[in-house]
Q: What sequence folds into this?
């Protein structure tokens, strides 16, 4: 499997976000470079650089805040609106059958970037399980991140 986008994390070492936050940095980049599909006033949506499935989105507040109960009402409201829109867009673009939606709070709960609140929106299909994750501990993703980002961003703009 060819996954060149993961090289930046390999080269960064065991604590790639000890001094920088990818969710604070992404909004300062172009949408293409930041993998951003939609920008709101208080929050935005971007593709996960380490997707569980094609189209795996993250919804984040712009403000660097770690926990859900530290977010403002405006931030959580916009995160909810962006999550609903993400579901509609992913249904249209990928024809998924369902979603896993969740927030991991803290490293103990599985948060990869525990210092910046982010909600996962993972599209799921009835037929998305195969032998790779079970035997090879590998997930096959049928599209490159840039292609997925473009398709989702285009559908978002027209939704």
A:
């Amino acid at each position: 499997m060819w996954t060149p986008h993961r090289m930046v994390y390999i080269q960064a070492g065991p604590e790639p976000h000890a001094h920088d936050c990818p969710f604070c940095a992404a909004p300062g980049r172009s949408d293409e470079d930041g993998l951003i599909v939609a920008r709101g006033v208080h929050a935005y949506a971007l593709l996960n650089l380490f997707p569980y499935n094609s189209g795996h989105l993250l919804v984040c507040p712009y403000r660097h805040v770690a926990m859900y109960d530290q977010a403002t009402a405006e931030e959580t409201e916009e995160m909810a609106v962006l999550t609903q829109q993400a579901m509609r867009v992913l249904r249209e673009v990928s024809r998924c059958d369902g979603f896993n939606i969740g927030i991991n709070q803290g490293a103990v709960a599985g948060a990869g970037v525990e210092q910046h609140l982010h909600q996962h929106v993972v599209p799921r299909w009835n037929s998305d399980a195969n032998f790779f994750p079970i035997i090879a501990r590998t997930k096959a993703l049928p599209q490159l991140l840039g292609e997925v980002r473009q398709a989702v961003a285009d559908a978002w703009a027209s939704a």
The mean pLDDT is 85. The first strand starts at residue 36 and ends at 39.
